[in-house]
Amino acid sequence: MTTQPTEPEHTAAAGQPAIPPENLPPVWAGQDERPAPPLVGDEREILTSFLDWHRRTFELKCAGVEPERLSEKSVPPSGLSLHGLIRHLAGVEHWWLRVQFAGERDDFPYYSDDHPDQDFEMLEGDVEEELAFWRAECAHSRKLVAAAPSLDATGTHAASGQPVALRRILVHLIAEYARHNGHADLLRERLDGATGV
Question: Are strands 154-156 and 2-3 parallel, antiparallel or unpaired?
């Protein structure tokens, strides 16, 4: 399911060697509509573009897999699955932007104090509904970020009670998605051999 990159312009900049297309990482075939993050832009544009690129990358890792297979823990002995990552990343969006930044009520469905790891461990839910829930959390996060007057706006960091800047939250989310997209790469490749960045 790999293909060569679709960007045709790999010509050399002044004084720089051109990179042969076959030496660039493969991208997802047929369904990759991710806009590349801008090379130039203000801080909010750069951070939100990278976060959305990672969100879309994760969605591609889950696309085209039979719903029941998304729950498979395909890289033993790891207990991770794409379904578990869907639930976990919905929680990441909810916890950092809804709860800590915006101060909204915490009513996340995949966590309890008695069973804090149920996002990864309790996969009995409908995976299509949970994918839709993750998408809705992402959409709500985008609205909260767009409405913030600046990246200096703060919420309350739950673990410390200290202010936490939106800038810090966005960097944390990018790091979280980057980490879990690496997990998703391995899980997906084990499911059906599909690879790509």
Answer: unpaired
3-state secondary structure 63-100: CCCCHHHHHCCCCCCCCCCHHHHHHHHHHHHHHHHHHH
Determine if the peptide bond prior to 116 is cis (ω within 30°). no
- pTM of the complete model beyond 0.85: no
As given in the structure block, the two tokens for residue 117 are 């790891």
Per-residue burial over 18-34, b if 16 or more Cβ lie within 10 Å, else e, is: eeeeeeeeebbeeebeb
- Amino acid type, 118: Q
Q: How far is CA 180 from CA 83, 140, 161, 195, in A?
A: 12, 21, 27, 15
Phi, psi of 36 (to 5 degrees): -65, 140
The answer to whether 176 and 89 have CB atoms below 8 angstroms apart is: yes
- The tens-digit pLDDT sequence of the chain (197 residues) is 443 333 434 445 556 677 777 666 566 555 667 888 989 999 999 999 999 999 999 999 999 999 989 999 999 999 999 999 999 999 999 999 999 999 998 787 877 777 777 777 778 889 999 999 999 999 999 999 999 999 999 999 999 999 999 999 999 999 999 999 999 999 999 998 888 77
User: Phi and psi at residue 4, in whole multiples of 5°?
Assistant: -75, 155
